[in-house]
Amino acid sequence: MIPIGGMYPSIIDYEIVDAQQTKETLKVRVRVIIQEEKLFGEEGDIEIAQGKIKSMKTAKLFDVNEHTVFPGLTNNNK
């Protein structure tokens, strides 16, 4: 479940960048575009074991000037 709308900061968009599965865990790298005072991006690693989130770590933050979720819906830092 991804929290959207009515929450602050708001997740505008996300993308699963990579996934690796071992015998016991699933590790997923997710890139998220977030709206707080301004747009910014975050990449994080989520480790899942036995159907539950075992850990979540931020890998890096990055600036976002503008992001188009789909044609007609563009957010920017103006």
Short descriptors:
6 strands, four-stranded antiparallel beta sheet, 78 residues, two-stranded antiparallel ribbon, mainly beta
Description:
The protein is mainly beta and 78 residues long. It is 0% helix and 71% strand. The chain has no helices and 6 strands. It has strands at residues 10-21, 25-35, 39-49, 52-63, 66-70, 73-76. A hairpin with a 3-residue loop joins strand 1 (10-21) and strand 2 (25-35). The chain is elongated, with a radius of gyration of 14 Å.
Structural class: mainly beta
Q: Can you give the mean pLDDT?
A: 87
For the largest beta sheet, what order do the strands appear in spatially? 1-2-3-4
**Roughly how many Å is the radius of gyration?**
14 Å
Order of helices and strands: EEEEEE
Kindly state the number of beta strands: 6
Approximate strand percentage: over 45%
Poorly predicted runs of 5 or more residues = none
Task: Produce the secondary structure layout.
Layout: E1 10-21, E2 25-35, E3 39-49, E4 52-63, E5 66-70, E6 73-76
Antiparallel strand pairs: 1-2, 2-3, 3-4, 5-6
